[in-house]
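worker-03 picked up job from queue 'complexes'. Input manifest follows; four sequence lines, order preserved.
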Amino acid sequence: MISPSSYRTHPSPFESGLRSDGKRMTPQRKKVLSLFEEIGSGIHLSAEEVHSKLTISGEKVSLATIYRTLRLLVKMTFLNELDLSEGGNRFELLSHDHPDHHHLICIRCGRTEEFENNEVINAGKAAAENFGFKLLESSLNVRAVCPMCLNK
Amino acid sequence: MISPSSYRTHPSPFESGLRSDGKRMTPQRKKVLSLFEEIGSGIHLSAEEVHSKLTISGEKVSLATIYRTLRLLVKMTFLNELDLSEGGNRFELLSHDHPDHHHLICIRCGRTEEFENNEVINAGKAAAENFGFKLLESSLNVRAVCPMCLNK
DNA sequence: TAGCGTAATGAGAACCGCTTGCAACACAAA
DNA sequence: TTTGTGTTGCAAGCGGTTCTCATTACGCTA
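worker-03 finished. Artifact:
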């Protein structure tokens, strides 16, 4: 039997996730998530790119809403956020004795841990040799979420 | 014999590097580099932090000059720059295979080559596990000089 | 299915980190 | 000391992101 409101045949994980949190499904939110589903995983888009892609295909969603929706989708773990924006770039003294810097960076709080790994050093050396470059230094940045931020 | 200008007993690598490039040593540049030397390697500061640390210790260097000096020190390979965030955050559909980006970058002309290396990927995974972080993405940046620029 | 409370949107101002243009300054060579 | 030009400080500008607030509209309930 079909009740008047049962046109929602398959409430998506997104929709039910929203509902269970007192939030609402809107056309704008659908459009943003659909865009990512269409292009598939492994491709990164900036907020600006999401905006222009939607605009080009005739969908009008304001930039402010896109930013809000992206944050929401990240919090709901439908999207992955790359790059650390808070605090801007950082600098450290380059020690010429140990020309390798490996960092594990929490993208939420900025917490940074250093670590050493010889294979990474060798990979840098090998790549430089392969292309005929003269190696100066190599740095591995691992973007991750630290335990503290995971539990928030 | 001591000529009038020979009070410079030990022109530092920084100073001679500047000189050989038609650039000048200034109190501001000295102060910025000294700050990094005092705190030692392995500690990262943002431009803003450099500015406030200098201000607190009574040194007046404008923020604009600090940004210019940091860029200069990076180009001269005295400092290491972390997190070159290429214009804002990016988002991607969450998937469980972690993308990795490895780049060989010529610091003179900007030429960039990509390469793949599984050991690097594994090193990132291992480090994240060690510290209890949830891995998102790792990127290895190898700073080097390309063959073309070597012959100039 | 109409009414209602409140979440969400759009538009623009505000903000933040960073860069740039420009006039004044100061190294360093003559 | 003079002079040329690299450097600085200030303020304006810029790109990305967040905030404010009036308006809109989702979806619960009667």
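worker-03 released lock.
The radius of gyration of chain A is 22 Å.
Residues 99 and 137 of chain A are 5 Å apart (CA to CA).
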